[in-house]
């Protein structure tokens, strides 16, 4: 699994923030045990290197109390907490008010070796726009950020829109 050093991650965060989004929240890093998840060992440095912009909530993912302590000490605005569900969700009605995505389709979990990552922000935005749902996202900015991520990682990203190109917006 490819990973970015903290210095590169801060630059990508700054680029990603230049993209206008309706509700702005950036999961900046994960505060997990560095020996168990070495890719996240520099979470404190990564968080410290993220330039702050008014109106953006900087989020840290935590799995336990120690991770919470580290996240709060590093200055996150919010935390997302890992919750392990034991029971099945049979018969439970689920709704979504927010969608989690990542530029280029990166992300995922280093603890799950077969994790495919997040849905690509640009692919999600394209699908929503083609469905007539407009929400103020700078798609060109996301595509530029994804291209930068791919170049930094030296990999071909799983996102499809960056490969195929945008399609003219439909008139409804």
UniProtKB/TrEMBL annotation:
<keyword id="KW-0456">Lyase</keyword>
<dbReference type="GO" id="GO:0004419">
    <property type="term" value="F:hydroxymethylglutaryl-CoA lyase activity"/>
</dbReference>
<dbReference type="GO" id="GO:0006552">
    <property type="term" value="P:L-leucine catabolic process"/>
</dbReference>
<protein>
    <submittedName>
        <fullName>Uncharacterized protein</fullName>
    </submittedName>
</protein>
<dbReference type="GO" id="GO:0046951">
    <property type="term" value="P:ketone body biosynthetic process"/>
</dbReference>
<dbReference type="GO" id="GO:0046872">
    <property type="term" value="F:metal ion binding"/>
</dbReference>
<keyword id="KW-0479">Metal-binding</keyword>
<dbReference type="InterPro" id="IPR043594">
    <property type="entry name" value="HMGL"/>
</dbReference>
<dbReference type="InterPro" id="IPR013785">
    <property type="entry name" value="Aldolase_TIM"/>
</dbReference>
């Amino acid at each position: 699994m490819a990973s970015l050093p903290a210095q590169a991650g801060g630059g990508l965060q700054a680029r990603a923030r230049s993209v206008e989004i309706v509700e702005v929240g950036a999961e900046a890093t994960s505060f997990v045990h560095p020996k168990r998840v070495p890719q996240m060992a520099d979470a404190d440095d990564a968080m410290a290197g993220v330039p702050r912009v008014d109106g953006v909530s900087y989020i840290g993912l935590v799995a336990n109390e120690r991770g919470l302590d580290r996240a709060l000490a590093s200055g996150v605005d919010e935390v997302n907490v890992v919750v392990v569900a034991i029971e099945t969700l049979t018969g439970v009605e689920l709704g979504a008010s927010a969608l989690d995505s990542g530029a280029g389709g990166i992300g995922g979990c280093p603890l799950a070796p077969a994790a495919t990552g997040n849905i690509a922000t640009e692919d999600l935005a394209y699908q929503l726009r083609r469905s007539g749902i407009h929400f103020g996202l700078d798609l060109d900015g996301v595509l530029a950020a994804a291209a930068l991520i791919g170049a930094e990682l030296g990999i071909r990203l799983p996102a499809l829109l960056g490969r195929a190109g945008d399609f003219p917006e439909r008139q409804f």
